[in-house]
Amino acid sequence: MKISAIITLKKDVLDPQGKVIHQALDGMGYKNVEEVRQGKYFEIDVKENDPNKAKEIVEEMCTCSQFVRIRENYLLIFRKTMKHIEQYGQEQGMMLENMERS
């Protein structure tokens, strides 16, 4: 099962890279951009067919301080094949789960 993890800084954490990107966009004439937050993106292919077990594996990775630091949040995107959709009766091809670390 393929799972994407998008990791961003918490809203109350200063994002200097996002600020630089915002300033560059502003200099390029994109004056309607209010804020840019920079983050990381991972695609993880888990050798697990059970969506609940796959979710547990990736959530464990995301709570490891080497993968997602305390000042970061993560968003998991579960990409399901048509087989998964038929098997579990889901109408959508993906499921989102936003996880905020406390």
**Biggest sheet, in brief?**
4 strands, antiparallel
In helices, the fraction of residues equals 25-40%
Q: Count all strands and give the number.
A: 4
Helix segment tally: 3
Spatial strand sequence of the major β-sheet: 2-1-3-4
Global Rg: 17 Å
Structural class: alpha+beta
Q: Determine the strand fraction and express it as a percent band.
A: 25-35%
The tally of structural domains comes to: 1
Q: What's the average pLDDT? A: 78
Q: Characterize the overall form.
A: elongated
SSE succession: EHEHEHE
Low-confidence stretches: 82-96
Q: Termini, distance in Å? A: 27 Å
Characteristic terms for this protein:
102 residues, alpha+beta, four-stranded antiparallel beta sheet, 3 helices, 4 strands
Description of the structure:
By secondary structure, this protein is an alpha+beta fold. The chain is built from three helices and four strands. The chain has a four-stranded antiparallel sheet with strand order 2-1-3-4, with helices on one face. The protein starts with a strand and ends with a strand. The protein has one domain (2-12, 39-99). Residues 82-96 have low confidence and may be disordered.
Short description:
The chain has 102 residues and is an alpha+beta fold.
Q: What's the SSE blueprint?
A:
Elements: E1 2-9, H1 16-27, E2 39-45, H2 51-63, E3 72-79, H3 82-88, E4 94-99
